[in-house]
Amino acid sequence: MALLEAKVKSVLSGDTVILHNINNPKQERTLSLAYVSAPRLKREGDEQYAFESRDFLRRLLVGRVVRFNILYKIPTGVNREYGVISLPNRTQLPEQAVAEGWLKLRDDAGRKDDSEESVSLLEKLQALEARARAESKGVWQESGARINSLNELSDPKQFVEDNKGNDLTGIVERVLSGDRMIIRFLLSPTEHVQTMVLLAGLRAPATKRTNPSDGKEQPAEPFGDEAHQFIETRLLQRNVVVNVLGTSPNGQIVASISHPVQGSIAPHLLKAGLARCNDHHTTLLGQEMSSLRQAEKVAKDSRQGLFQGHVAQKKTGAGEFEATVSRIQSADTLFLRSKAGAERRINLSSVRQPKPTDPKQAPWVPEAKEFLRKKLIGKHVKFHIDGKRPATEGYDEREMATVTFQDKNVGLLLVENGMASVIRHRQEDTDRSPIYDDLLIAELAAQEEKKGLWSPKGPSTKQYVDYSESLEKAKRQLTLLSRQRKVPAIVDYVKSGSRFTVLVPRENAKLTFVLSGIRAPRSARNPTDKGEPFGQEAHDFANKRLQQRDVEIDVEDCDKVGGFIGTLYINRENFAKTLVEEGLASVHAYSAEKAGNANELFAAEERAKQARKNLWQDYDPSQDEDAEATTEGAAASAQNGDAAAERRKDYRDVMVTHVDDNGRLKLQQVGTGTAALTELMSAFRSFHINPANNAGLSDAPKAGEFVAAKFTADDEWYRARIRRNDRDAKKAEVVYIDYGNSELIPWTRLRPLTQPQFLPSKLRPQAVDAQLSFIQLPGNPEYLADAIHLISQETADRQLVANVDQVEKDGMLWVTLFDPKESKTGEESVNAEVISEGLAMVPKKLRAWERSASDILGALNKRQAVAKEERRGQWEYGDLTED
Q1: Distance between CA atoms of 163 and 150, rounded to whole angstroms?
Q2: Do residues 175 and 226 touch, judged by C-beta distance below 8 A?
Q3: What span is annotated as the signal peptide, if there is one (predicted)?
Q4: Tag placement on the chain: N or C end, fewer CB within 10 Å?
């Protein structure tokens, strides 16, 4: 009879194999070896040597092409065929198996066939069996150990714990589908375990199966049979190396399965497009998952199997971009500003902030946002767009991006610290992070270490109290904050160029903070509102520099609506000065002087004017004084209406304590204030005479700080405020707040002013800013010096009467000074005396209230005419007003 050819699919026992057509694996036939029998493998317990007998045949035949011949058939229910098998190396079966002692001759062997060929084969087999028995081979061994084979694991998790990290030897007994199979673990020569194993890292489509609940047959999923056949032809009854990794939610073992020669089977199945990567196994596989994703990508690119209709994702950009983080909206949403100034919102790929709707995660929402703010705000980052999530109900279209800071993935940083969770993507999602597997691994590590939102204990919640809610609350907090210097704070919101909402974490305080010493133009509050010129530019500049930044604040006072007034420092620089220097704010003289940083601000304003920046783009130095006068007059009219057009009659007893180099006066109003000052100064001097109170400053003084200063002229102690500080020379310029004069003195002549009875809050500074009305001092420095000398001489150590002609918004007084002993009429005044000496002139452009005093102006013009005729002072070379 002619020999047939087939491939051995599997070995059922030591005497039976399953063959399939070489060209069509689905055509199968079962062939038993003629005249012999082997011990049986049984679920209730294998017969002795059953495994060894089968294993001999398995190692010899599985996966090999053989030739076979059918000798006889037994017409039972299965119509089994019996025959012989020949291997290419001329090995004959059953002869070889009988010779090795793994098969016995059947008792009825002689009755099967009486042909000459059969008789010859039978005689040969009998001789081989006799020799094997004599040599105690195979089943003829007298003291062979019985293999204990279990078909179920009582505790899969414990099995994994005991064997994790070890390469276990196994045999694939049965392939159920492309991603699951029954494996016999050869734990020892006498201990075997058979159990179902899931192939780690992938999910293959299901094969045809019967639903146990209703008995209905469910068809195979697309490519389910192909995946099953792919694994079966390569691994069925082959020795494999198994690395157990964990268990599934159903208690099934998940493992990496490798062929001893070809390596892991998973990448090959994925490259063929017969499975998809399984994200749930990422934490088990770790870095190995990346090779599986690469294999899946190969199938997608070549449109293999499951990916035949795959459409490659369109590239969304030109690669990697650089930007600055301008705002943190939440732990997974950032605003980035490009070098050109354009701002865009992006979401971090594959990560999600703590869920605000989850009671356990909600407390971590502000914590995660603050974590990201501290790391990124104002920092340069790199990013690339991974994909876009289309707009849905309640959500706009979102760009999903990978952001890196100092070569560290920001999403990974959040997940590692338990400040975000990883999104479980659907298979068709195209916007997942390129390091998605690393994110899943990091999340598992954070969960195991109970970090952040995975901690059983919530964060310490910080409840900020809004102290700007009312003036009463603001005043209570002012007492505490005004005693501190450089208080750490966070700019939570920019309301305008000079007004912000700040958070003070160490005080749990929320404040409306207003910059002192400047005035920034108002920006539009809504789309229908119209802001002042450069108001929006100032707002945008402040937003760019301060939004969500760490700053320091010095609180000086509070306004009528509960706003806190003071100095704000960003990177140790006064932001008010920066704003003025950019031409986006002007100096408010009175409050700047009060804050002690007037010189710094005026210098910054002058630089902005010279550079013609923003507000000063049309600045004309020659018209500066005229423009100022016109503006002041208009402002006064706008503030006070018709009443502002008239000169006030408000007589006060005053003392001129100082005359500045620009001709401005410092007045003390005689009355309860000066009486209280006399009493305070007496106690102040006594306090500082006491040797117990001679401790100097503990640290370098800061601009705006109140101190006790020892005046050089008389070596007495006075209340003062630091105007500026020279750290190199260890000197400070101080303004004596009760007298108005200033000087530069060493730090050694300073002491802290912390005693409650001497603080400005106990007795406000007594020096008031003032200017002489109806006169314009010379621009020439020599004549100006003469004018100041005259004013100082006329006012020194004398109690005068001042008519307060007008009060500016910043509190500065316009005054006419009279000596009650010498002034018999309203025309005799210090103002008139300066005109008479030719050291001032009547201004050409008068303020509205000055124009209303025609009698005063008439008298002053007469005096000016006499001074011109007599060539006094600045008129000595002629009339300055002539063209």
Answers
A1: 17
A2: no
A3: none
A4: C
Which strand (E) or helix (H) includes residue 445?
Answer: helix 436-448
DSSP 792: H
Which are the contacts of 227, defined by CB distance < 8 A and separation ≥ 6?
177, 178, 179, 204, 205, 207, 269, 274, 275
- Confidence (pLDDT) at 77: 63
| CA distance linking residue 577 with residue 516, whole number of Å | 10
Give residue 165's region: left, alpha or beta (phi > 0; psi -120 to 50): left
CB 14 within 8 A of CB 38: yes
- Determine whether 525 is exposed, middle or buried from the number of CB atoms within 10 Å of its CB (0-12, 13-18, 19+): exposed
Centroid of chain to Cα 818: 66
Note the maximum CA span of the chain. Answer: 164
| Positive or negative torsion for Cα 551, 555, 556, 559 | positive
Are 570 and 526 spatial neighbours (Cβ–Cβ below 8 Å)?
no
pLDDT of residue 642: 40
Q: Which two tokens stand for residue 426?
A: 């659907």
CB contact at 8 A, 32 and 109: no
Q: How far is CA 261 from the centre of its chain?
A: 47
Whole-number pLDDT of residue 312:
63
What angle in degrees, to the nearest 10, is found between the helix axes of 436-448 and 288-302? Answer: 150
- pLDDT value for 745: 94
DSSP secondary structure letter of residue 393: T
**414 three-state secondary structure:** helix
Taking alpha carbons only, the member of 551, 555, 437, 546 closest to residue 498 is: 546
Domains defined for the chain, CATH in brackets: 4-140 (2.40.50.90), 148-209+220-307 (2.40.50.90), 321-365+378-454 (2.40.50.90), 465-619 (2.40.50.90), 640-649+773-875 (2.40.50.90), 673-758 (2.30.30.140)
* Residue from 238, 239, 164, 242 nearest 196 by CA: 242
Q: Which residues of 377-404 are buried (b: 16+ CB within 10 A; e: fewer)?
A: bbeebebbbbbbbeeeeeeeebbbbbbb
- Residue 595 in contact with residue 574, Cβ under 8 Å? no
Tell whether the torsion through CA atoms of 655, 657, 661 and 662 is positive or negative: negative
Of the chain, the end-to-end C-alpha distance in Å amounts to 138
Report the candidate in 6, 112, 15 with the shortest Cα–Cα distance to residue 66. 6
Instruction: State how far the Cα of 561 lies from the Cα of 459, in Å rounded to an integer.
Output: 34
- For 55, what's the count of Cα atoms within 13 Å in the CB-facing half-sphere? 15
Residue labelled with tokens 């159990």: 195
CA-based Rg of the chain, rounded to a whole angstrom?
48
> Which H or E run contains 373?
helix 364-376
**Cβ(64)–Cβ(3) below 8 Å:** no
At which residue do the structure tokens 């006491």 appear?
690
For 571-664, where are the E strands, in sequence order?
A: 573-574, 586-587, 651-659
| Spatial separation of the C-alpha atoms in residues 111 and 114, rounded to whole Å | 7
Residue numbers in the chain where pLDDT is lower than 70: 1-2, 76-78, 110-114, 312-318, 393-394, 622-645, 882-883
In Å, what is the CA distance from 872 to each residue of 702, 783, 834, 865, 880? 46, 11, 11, 10, 12
Report d(CA 864, CA 840) in Å as an integer.
8
**Closest of 792, 773, 768 to residue 661, by C-alpha:** 792
**Sequence-separated contacts (24+) of 589-593 with Cβ below 8 Å:** 589/769, 589/810, 589/812, 590/769, 590/808, 590/810, 590/811, 590/812, 591/516, 591/517, 591/565, 591/810, 592/516, 592/517, 592/518, 593/735, 593/769
Structure confidence at residue 635 (pLDDT): 41
At position 430, the amino acid (one-letter code) is T
Distance CA 834, CA 482 (A): 42
- Give CA–CA dist 579/494, Å, rounded: 14
Give the dihedral sign, CA 267/271/274/277: positive
Say if residues 830 and 821 touch (Cβ distance below 8 Å): no
